Amino acid sequence: MTKTKIGLIQMRVGADRKKNLARALEMIGEAARKGADIVCLPELFGSRYFPQHRGAQKIAEPIPGPTTDALSLAAKQNKVVIVGGSIYERSQGKFYNTSVVFDQNGRILGKYRKVHIPFDSHYYEKDYFSSGKGYKAFNTKFGKLSVLICFDQWYPEPARISRLMHAEMLFYPTAIGTVKGMRQAEGDWQEAWENVQRGHAISNSMVICTVNRVGIEEELNFWGGSFVIDQFGKTLFRAGNKEGVFVVACDLSLGRNVERGWGFIRNRKADTYGGISH
Question: Whole-angstrom Cα distance, residue 3 to residue 173?
Fold first, then answer.
């Protein structure tokens, strides 16, 4: 078996950006002390969830920049791979929701810019972020991983592309919850949120790791519920609605065994999928 230990940082985010970063670094250290190999932070962990308001705020930063410098040092000091949640990135006059991946020596392996950008009540992200272009996979000491961000998790195509790039683990830094006064008319939102990612895990024989923030921020109640699902849909861990650091061991060899037995990837018929781009 190939065991990889994944650290989930389920954070409560406050108004003070410096304190948020300091808290994130403290929790990374805690995850490392608990034996984590890879540590993931939630989406936009450096600030309260500002896209619940219309219009833009001037809190974007470059990459590399202050936040990535701090995460790089944390990765090196703790000897862990870090999936850096996401950062409000400013680059050449555009703005992105960006996740940066660091190896255990603090080196930036690359970054992923969120592709699918929501625009709904209290999730006005198109006021803030341009869409990224394409998907990536990162080789690490502890296995090959891909990163997608929050709203990306509702789409099967990015997960499949990540698997075709040979990712063994897929991380989703997330900021999702309920809106004050808004009824869940379609059904249980949190249940649907987890179920759609369970499908990604099974159909792609990948470990799915989703890390949410937690707590009330004005009109939004982030429900936490960070989870890890194995390559055949078993929930290995699900957090509650409290802040915490959670370390979960995953058997990466299970993905290879599932593919060997079920052949979801090798039996694809890519020549029949042309209509998917329309």
Answer: 22
- Residue 269 domain-assigned? no
Is 33 part of a structural domain of the chain? yes
- Check: pTM over 0.90? Answer yes or no: yes
pLDDT digits (tens, 9 = 90+) for 223-233: 999 999 999 99
Q: Which entry of 43, 125, 168, 217 is annotated as an active-site residue?
A: 43
In one letter, which amino acid is 46?
G
Phi, psi of 65 (to 5 degrees): -165, -170
- The domain spanning residue 253 has which CATH number? 3.60.110.10
Q: Is 211 part of a structural domain of the chain? A: yes
For tokens 């850096």, the residue is 84
Q: Which of 89, 111, 114, 250 is catalytic?
A: 114
* pLDDT on residue 56: 73
Ranges of residues in the chain with a pLDDT under 70 are 1
How many Å apart are CA 15 and CA 269, to the nearest integer?
Answer: 50
Q: Tell me if residue 150 is catalytic.
A: yes
How many separate domains does the chain show?
A: 1
Residue 273 falls inside a structural domain? no
Q: From the candidates 40, 125, 136, 150, which is the catalytic residue?
A: 150
State the residue range of the domain holding 145. 3-262
The residues that bridge with 119 in the sheet, in sequence order, are 124
What's the rounded Cα separation, in Å, for the pair 229 and 264? 17
Whether the Cβ atoms of residue 241 and residue 224 lie closer than 8 Å to each other: yes
